[in-house]
Specification:
There is one protein chain. Helices cover 30% and strands 22% of the residues. The chain is of the alpha/beta class. The strands form three sheets. It has a seven-stranded parallel beta sheet. A hairpin with a 4-residue loop joins strand 7 and strand 8. Helix 2 crosses helix 3 and helix 6 packs parallel to helix 8. The chain starts with 8 loop residues before the first helix and ends in a 7-residue tail after the last strand.
Length: 306
Amino acid sequence: MITNSEITLDLIHAKHDKSTRRTKICCTLGPACWSEEGLINLIDAGMNIARFNFSHGDHASHHATFERLQRAIAARPGCHVGVMLDTKGPEIRTGVIDSALGGKLKFVKNEIIEVGTDYSRPCTPQYLACSYQSLPKSVKVGGVILVADGAISLEVVEILESSVKAKILNNATIGDRKNMNLPGAIVDLPTLTTKDIDDIKVWGIQHNIDYIAASFVRKPSDILFIREVLGEAGKNVKIVSKIENQEGLQNYDAILEVTDSIMVARGDLGMEIPIEKVFLAQKMMIHKANIVGVPVITATQMLESM
């Protein structure tokens, strides 16, 4: 039963004042909108935080966008736009396809392929190179390996010393260096890579950023390490913990105790748990964050799938 509702017909018909809007909007900056004119349009439309995605671009290109953003903000006196650095984070990728195959590797349903940690070895129908050296220790027989955003599903059938044998569950074709996911596995990778640390110290702190969106947060110690990296110079930077795998969900309550904010990374979660259950995880995380007063961001396909 709904009680004490503050929604009235007068509120429905009243002219909207965006200055009183409680829900904030984070916008990822890219070629379609990062011109000075485009950034002014975003500010006019209600952008509160500008997200710089460090999975792409270099320091110089991000600096140029930052400069345009500052000019756009100056053109709108009284408007405040926060700056968020979103780290690339650790990743697992397939290797380079054997040149004899024309840059494309075909997977045939029900065939067996070896997925190994010799990353210098070309990928063939018999061998798929993987950048993650601890693969045989992290997966279990019966576990699933997803390749290229889930375009290919592999079921682990045997674990060897430096590789695993897997059954191909569907027909598909991929190119070089596609991403890999290990749903449910405890992955032995750092929260911040050498690149991430450089991005934070050399670019982020120097540009006086407001937020770090930390990719692949799995446990509270990840947040504490990021604070160490920020140091005294970055003590005022707020950390947004991106929850994108099952380990992060499992440790969510503990992460919530030490983080400044949460990001529900719907796209990556959809690779880790059944896609039809992503909304359940989303609602759980938002509810718990609301209870303790921690800001929470819902991200990925907000217009396309909702």
